[in-house]
Design goal:
The complex is a heterotrimer of chains A (183), B (318) and C (433).
Chain A: E1 2-3, E2 6-10, H1 12-26, E3 33-38, H2 42-57, E4 64-67, E5 98-106, H3 110-122, E6 127-135, E7 147-151, E8 158-163, H4 165-168, E9 172-177
Parallel strand pairs in A: 3-4, 3-5, 5-6, 6-7
Antiparallel strand pairs in A: 1-2, 2-9, 8-9
Helix pairs in contact in A: 1-2
Chain B: H1 13-29, E1 44-49, H2 54-66, E2 70-75, H3 87-96, E3 101-106, H4 111-116, E4 122-128, H5 134-147, E5 155-159, H6 166-177, E6 181-185, E7 201-203, H7 206-209, E8 215-218, H8 223-227, H9 234-241, H10 245-249, E9 256-258, H11 271-274, H12 281-300
Parallel strand pairs in B: 1-2, 1-3, 3-4, 5-6, 5-8, 6-7, 8-9
Helix pairs in contact in B: 1-5, 1-12, 2-12, 5-6, 5-12
Chain C: E1 4-14, E2 19-28, E3 31-36, E4 45-48, E5 53-56, E6 58-63, H1 76-85, E7 88-93, H2 104-117, E8 121-124, H3 140-145, E9 150-152, H4 161-171, E10 177-180, E11 193-194, H5 197-202, E12 206-207, H6 210-226, E13 230-232, H7 238-249, E14 254-258, H8 260-264, H9 286-297, E15 303-304, H10 313-316, H11 333-342, H12 349-364, E16 381-391, E17 410-420, E18 423-427, E19 430-431
Parallel strand pairs in C: 1-4, 1-5, 6-7, 7-8, 9-10, 10-13, 11-12, 13-14, 14-15
Antiparallel strand pairs in C: 1-2, 2-3, 5-16, 16-17, 17-18, 18-19
Classes of the chains: A alpha/beta (183), B alpha/beta (318), C alpha/beta (433).
């Protein structure tokens, strides 16, 4: 199905089922976990995951934090404008905890590299794992996810975007040709 | 964002909002244990301070360091700025050292513009003569935003020696740009009538203005202006235009009191007034670091449009 | 063998005679030998001047040649070369040199330097007060004998009313001009630009027009009292011009000059803090500029004078408030007047040339300058291409200094030839020495 140039890779139902499956997989490890979502959209996903985990296991709620990694990016100064900044809120100590980083799309791996550098400035976690809704391949760094919603092969010149009800009014994963090229 | 920050007139409303929003994130960084992020790693920021100002220089220095930039301090109190070396030669030296940004404070109005003609680096105006002090205005806006949800329709009085105040000029331009109402208060000798061209109203009666204010901003009055007879005596000035305790009580309950520092306690502001909770002067200082981090990040974090020194300076409309 | 030059087919503009027609002009040795149509060339060096304007050489009432004492800014040689390039055949050199031109020896030295350079006649002005200190009158009689025709303390204003009265009174026996740089010292203290909207925006200390007008009003009163000749140099405000108009109507012996930059530029142009636009008196708002233009057109302001004020690069390439005021002007004056006044139809070219040549020559009492272009007159001429367009500073200035307020501006009107007493000082746009 497509939407004027964009193609849906996952529809709303598939997105929700992916979140649920990650929550189940995650529960196979027993340690108390904290979820840290990478802004933006990673944090909405982290909150959904936390809600799913609580639904499956019951209270207590899993702590959720938001991490903005803009200041740790490796491409500051290379684009026309400085990259836009989002909120960071980690209202708990991460030292000694099992952290699961949550992001919407895993692509080159640079965002995760930045997130790892940011996290170690907050403390010394016992372990860090990675959960992503979509892995679209084309890694440029040695980063691998621990939990994946769906593996979706893409071309480098395509844009993959995750839509979430919380921010976009609908759930879905769409792929578009990069601006300027014919659909 | 423009490559330089020379004047508030170079910023659009959207730019100002962006600077303040980004400063929120840097305020959060300032609350972490590790108050440093690697965003400007490898960049060199030079503090070129021809006027002594420990407070502003330290604020910029901390801002740059917390962004992981390297900082060089050129100040007249040290021996770095040698007597007789022209601004141009100093500029060329800094350029040769690979400065990415030069923060300049100078007693000559327009010095940052002149400097920007000789260097490739971004130039940030930390106060030039009696012209502008853009970063002070921005941190003042940031502080105001902590107490009020919007700038539109906000009633602000700026009282004191407006004529010689770079803070007054920048703040008036910034507030009117964001939709605020500014009244400049002081004796006629200290308020140029042309200031209405900045978008402000003028009043010579502080007591008339107080009951309607959201923000009462007091400017520092320099005693040497009295020597030059801009006002007859400090006593008279204080009586007519000082923010005394009774005057503070005439302010609405929600109103805040601000001052760019350093204060002349007992002259423009009574000592006990300066210590009231509604006097947010120390917050202004704290916020200075976050706002300056935001500016350095936004200016150096992008390639930056190639901008000429005079570009963006409008004829006086905020 | 007499040297002969025939200018063929030029539009001869001769304000002294009110002439404006296409003619040939024959110059023999130092004088004009014949003026008419279809003149025979004979052995003359023929200069085709079709489409060009031939006028009396320009005369500048106010230029700073800086020598002796400030040779790092300009010398008499480089200054007169700039003058010739700008179409000038006579320049009145200001006395704020070091030593000050308050004695006959300095006057003689400046004159000698000019004669040696041979590029333009220089008539040095004498100081009104010794050392320009504003306290004691100079030996005006001795200076007049040395050839001085205009006295001024320019740079400084004679502040003492008593002394100004005495200067006008004493000078009236010599029929020379007392030229005043009108600026009330205390009112203008610390000034950096015109007081107005832009000074408030730029954070620069403003000087109000009243600082000039107060002195102009006072000097008019003193001129009326004494019957002396008062000249208001570089007049810059609307009310100064009004005062001048009234004074002339009342028979006061007043003359005035205005600079090209005050006829062209505004205080608003100081956005960006370009030090080349820092001048004294400062550039003002449109209201004042328009009043100056009107006054030049109707003759209340008699002449255009450059106030050519060269400075060394390191003096101008610095903070605005630390750089000395002044712009060069000899090489751009004519073009600015053509571009900003003649082309838009505000002033006709013959009137412009009258203001830049004939009128200043009369004020200085120079018989051999400013026309008429007639048999027997000294051949002090300029040939102009009023159409040619050029950018100021694109080719290096002839002046030693490059601090032009018009740097980078496109101007119309170019000097093709300048002739000083029958010899070319500029030929085909190039100085001959």
């Amino acid at each position: 199905m497509s939407d004027g140039g964009a193609t849906y890779l996952l529809d709303a139902g598939e997105v929700r089922r992916s979140v649920t499956r990650i929550a189940h997989e995650r529960n196979k490890g027993a340690a108390a976990v904290v979820l840290i979502g990478i802004a933006a959209r990673g944090d909405d996903l982290a909150r959904r995951l936390a809600a799913e985990i609580e639904r499956i296991e019951g209270p207590p709620a899993v702590p959720v934090g938001t991490l903005d990694i803009t200041f740790y990016r490796d491409d500051i100064g290379l684009r026309a404008e400085a990259p836009e900044v989002h909120e960071t809120q980690i209202p708990f100590d991460i030292s000694g905890r099992a952290v699961v980083l949550v992001d919407d799309v895993l692509f080159t791996g640079r965002t995760i590299r930045a997130a790892l550098d940011a996290l170690v400035d907050f403390g010394r976690p016992q372990s860090i794992q990675l959960a992503v809704l979509v892995d679209r391949g084309h890694r440029e760094l040695p980063i691998r996810p621990d939990y994946v919603g769906k593996n979706v092969p893409t071309r480098r010149d395509e844009d993959v975007a995750v839509l979430l009800v919380e921010t976009d009014g609908e759930d879905g994963v769409v792929v578009r040709e990069r601006e300027g090229k014919p659909a | 964002m423009n490559k330089h920050l020379l004047s508030i007139t170079q910023l659009s409303r959207e730019d100002v909002t962006r600077i303040l929003d980004t400063a929120e994130s840097f305020r959060e960084v300032g609350s972490r244990v590790i108050k440093k992020v690697p965003a400007l790693r490898g960049r060199t920021v030079v503090n070129l301070f021809y006027e002594n100002s420990t407070r502003t220089r330290i604020s910029f220095e901390l801002a740059a360091k917390r962004l992981s930039a390297d900082v060089i301090n050129f100040s007249t109190s040290g021996s770095s700025v040698s007597k007789g070396e022209s601004l141009k030669d100093t500029a060329l030296t800094l350029e040769a050292m690979g400065a990415d940004a030069i923060v300049i404070r100078h007693s000559s109005s327009g010095a940052p513009y002149t400097l920007s003609k000789w260097v490739e680096a971004s130039v940030l105006n930390a106060g030039d003569g009696t012209h502008e002090h853009p970063t002070q205005a921005l941190l003042d806006l940031f502080t105001i935003r902590e107490h009020f949800p919007a700038f539109d329709g906000l009633n602000v009085a700026i009282a004191g020696d407006v004529r010689h105040s770079r803070v007054a000029r920048s703040l008036t331009l910034a507030l009117t740009k964001m939709g605020g109402n500014v009244t400049l208060v002081g004796p006629p000798t200290l308020i140029p009538p042309e200031a209405v061209g900045w978008g402000a109203a003028i009043s010579h009666e502080l007591d008339d203005v107080l009951p309607k204010l959201d923000v009462c901003y007091m400017l520092r009055v320099q005693r040497e202006r009295q020597r030059l007879q801009f006002f007859p005596s400090v006593r008279e000035y204080s009586r007519l235009y000082g923010l005394s305790r009774p005057r503070v009580d005439a302010l609405p309950d929600h109103a805040i009191v601000m001052h760019p520092g350093p204060m002349n306690r007992g002259v423009e502001i009574a000592s006990d007034v300066a210590d009231l909770p509604r006097a947010v002067i120390t917050d202004q200082v704290t916020n200075g670091i976050a706002v300056r981090m935001s500016l350095l990040y936004l200016i150096l974090g992008g390639e930056g449009a190639r901008a000429e020194a005079g570009a963006g300076v409008e004829a006086g409309h905020a | 063998m007499p040297s002969r030059v025939l200018f063929r087919g030029a539009r001869v503009v001769d304000p002294a005679q009110g002439r404006d027609e296409v003619l040939d002009v024959l110059v023999e040795d130092e004088q004009i030998a014949e003026v008419g149509s279809g003149l025979a060339a004979g052995r003359a060096d023929v200069v085709e001047a079709g489409g060009l304007v031939l006028a009396p050489g320009l005369v500048d009432l106010h230029a700073h040649l800086r020598e002796p004492g400030f040779e790092h800014k300009e010398t008499v040689e480089t200054g007169t070369r700039a003058a010739a390039a700008g179409g000038y055949t006579a320049v009145c050199a200001m006395p704020n040199t070091d030593p000050v031109a308050d004695n006959a020896a300095v006057i003689a030295e400046v004159r000698n330097l000019a004669d040696k350079a041979g590029l333009c006649d220089v008539h040095p002005a004498g100081a009104i007060t010794r050392g320009l200190a504003g306290e004691e009158l100079t030996d005006m009689g001795e200076l007049v004998e040395a050839g001085v025709r205009l006295f001024t303390d320019d740079g400084n204003c004679v502040g003492s009313s008593r002394l100004m009265r005495l200067a006008l009174e004493y000078a009236s026996q010599f029929d020379v001009v007392i030229s005043q740089h009108a600026q009330d010292a205390e009112l203008s203290e610390g000034w950096q630009m015109h007081e107005g909207h832009y000074s408030a925006m730029l954070g620069l200390t403003g000087v109000p027009p009243e600082a000039e007008e107060i002195v102009v009003a006072r000097d008019i009163a003193l001129a009326r009292l004494t019957g002396g000749r008062i000249h208001v140099t570089h007049v810059s405000t609307a009310r100064s011009v009004e005062l001048a108009r009234e004074a002339k109507e009342r028979g006061v012996r007043l003359t005035a000059d205005v600079t090209p930059h005050h006829l062209s530029l505004l205080d608003e142009d100081l956005i960006g803090y370009d030090t080349n636009l820092r001048v004294n008196p400062p550039l003002r708002s449109a209201e004042h500029r328009d009043a100056l233009r009107t006054a030049l057109v109707d003759g209340v302001v008699d002449a255009v004078a450059t106030d050519h004020a060269p400075h060394a690069p390191e003096e101008k390439e610095r903070e605005f408030d630390l750089s000395p005021p002044g712009t060069t002007g000899l090489e751009t004056a004519l073009a600015v007047v053509v571009t900003d006044l003649v082309d838009p139809g505000i002033l006709s070219l013959p009137h412009a040339l009258a203001r830049m040549s004939t009128a200043p020559a009369r004020i200085l009492g120079l018989q051999d300058q400013g026309g008429p272009i007639d048999v027997g007159a000294a051949a002090n001429l300029v040939v102009i291409d009023p159409e040619e367009s050029w950018v100021a500073g694109e080719r290096p200035f002839r002046s030693a200094a490059a601090n032009s307020a018009f740097l980078g501006k496109r101007l119309r009107g170019r000097v093709v030839h300048t002739m000083l007493r029958g010899s070319f000082t500029v030929r085909d746009g190039e100085p001959t020495r």
